[in-house]
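User: Could you walk me through two proteins back to back? I'd like the raw sequence and the structure tokens for each, with a short line separating them so I can tell where one ends and the next begins.

Assistant: Of course. Protein one, sequence then structure:
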Amino acid sequence: MNNRRNWLKQIGLGTISLGFIPFETFANPLAEDYVLPDFDTSPILLRSNENPYGPSPLARIAMTKSVNNSNRYGWDLESELISALAKKNNLADNNILLGAGSTEILDLVLQYTALKKGNFIMAETTYNYWTAPCEKLGLKKIKIPLTKDKKHDLTAMLKAIDADTKMIYICNPNNPTGTICDREKLVSFINEATKKVIVFVDEAYIDFTKEQSLSNSVTENKNLIITKTFSKMYGLAGARVGYAIANPATIEEISSLKSSANDSVSVVSTAGAIASLQDENFVKQVNSNNEEVKKYTIAQLTQLNLTCIPSYSNFLYFSLENYKKDYFKQLENHNILGTKIYEENGKWTRITIGTMNEMQLFIAALK
């Protein structure tokens, strides 16, 4: 224990228990005084829903200091992060499984589901890059169209369950639409669906909302799995830190698919994640900036006669149906990277909410 605490102190993370307060050389300002950096990037990256302000100042300090310890395995530090995450979610340590971003968690749950073969259900349109290996693993994908207002059709998804269904995937808030499920309806859906199948809820963007996580439901429900990530709100997309929340028995089963559980996150990334959890002012300011810039962007797109879906995230889903220019050529000409057309009917596309300066340049490019 003493060796572990000494090590944590060396990288600026250890005081007593989970206090992680040090960083004496850095004054953590109040949220109202917290000025986020506006990084100049070329090209302007508005494609992957990344945090444009970078990691929190505390995370950057912790990651820098932890480099010197990268010659050692981070088992003890991983335990610290797991305990911090358990505390944040009012759960026990054995409710948590770390992964190299939520992508690794998605892959593990896919493998776990594929053990029994059959099919899984997901919305069309939703985050689906992780589903590419499905057929190779013997799983059939069943896609349920979104409602007219671009939300998950929970009723249709429930009706789609058959004897071969093993899992249902819900991205909430949904990527790329930015919509969110009504909490009461989602809880009711989960309670019913998990009587038969696993429900896998992806909460990658929940930190951009005032919604409560569903994490408190996993203690009694062995068929509910939740994944979260440090990639979005905490600005650690390149550091690759994510985690699963589930019943201890389910965590144990998923973990058995790895040769060694919880060891795929680097020492540097783990240190950054621990520090990020302590920097509440950074989270408040990112949320504040995101809401301000989002309102500006929606207003500007509306003036251009482009329909936007109300967004509970750090990105916008809007229709190019009324846009007369070549949208993607306009972005290219102004050195901006966006995404693609997700739905041909209505020409729906998505754009990440960048800094105010980046979104002003984005709007100017469209004009």
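----
Protein two, same layout:
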Amino acid sequence: MTTTTTAPPSREAGRLAHVDALRGFALLGILIVNIGYLASTYHGTGLEDPGFASPLDDAVRWFVAVFFEAKFFLLFSFLFGYSFTLQLSSAERHGARFASRFLRRLAGLFVLGALHAVLLFPGDILTTYAVLGLILLAARRLRPRTAVRTAAALFVLTAAAYVVLALSAHAAGGSGLDPATAAGAEQAAEALRGGPASVVATHLEQLPDVLILLVFFQAPAALAAFLIGLAAGRRQALGDIARHRGTLGRLQRTGFTLGLLGGVVYAHASLEHPGGAYQILALGIDVVTAPLLAAAYAATVLRLACGRNADRLIALLAPAGRMTLTNYLTQSLVCALLFTGYGAALVGDVPPLGVLVIALVLFTAQAAASRWWLRLYRYGPLEWLLRAWTTLTWPPLRRGEAAPR
């Protein structure tokens, strides 16, 4: 069966509805990954939660690890780089003004991210984006080919570093997990079930470990994805999907083969053989294969969003994608109310399948709420607040409201 690819529909002037849909899809994937860390302190430790060890629990963990983990932040990062070029092109004749506005935007993201990390979820990505955005701003004049080559070099060098670490770990004979890991997970769960002060203290205690993960794993890959988004934006690659149908098909074929194979290796090492040289090597493999799978996802969503059922897909995903900042932080707020002492304190009490169902229900509710909100307002609440800080104005929020003079 062939898919008819048409010109991408747009709901508002100046916006690409299919790009908003892709952003909404990325938001769903981020939620499915993040909620696992919020629901269980065992998640990411390499240990299986002793309360949930059934074949179904294992199957859900494998599903999330293979198809979601380490893939969707790359999509978000790519779109951050792409959106940067749209902002830049609209202010091309006022470079200094754009730079100052963008710096304020990064400062706003950093503050929101820091509050998010301390109060709701230590695995925040906004602070990383704010810091890496400084590099993106400095690299804004890179030629597209140079940006892509630099991104490829970042992926390869990061993977090579993991290979060296794996060889060193193998030579040292170290393997397995720290015996104190299980006790630490239980202590963290108890602390998260406590009051707000206990929750914040636990987050602060976890931040150093999270920082190591961000610096050595997420940050290089996110920067590489920024640069690929920069190159795609310079080429206006997402403006006319029909023109790139062949490229999208190749991305799907490559990503759904090599990318999934790398995802299986990553999941096998993380879930079955954690804590040793094999897991480190698998992380290196994932660094170069996860971008391929992320690209395959993007190609699939873009083709569907410009095909026969485009209106349905865009109606489902695009509104949430237009309010990613509000929805991203709201996801953490809802999960904190569910799983920590801020609310129900269900951390460690919900099986993996239940966690996945909660994620899907939450995203569905957000998609509906975003669609309703955008019928009345131009921006999401936090998008409006960040825009006001960035421009140092009060942009009109309600539809039909005139901009202040």
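The chain has 14 helices and no strands.

Let me know if you want the two compared in more detail.
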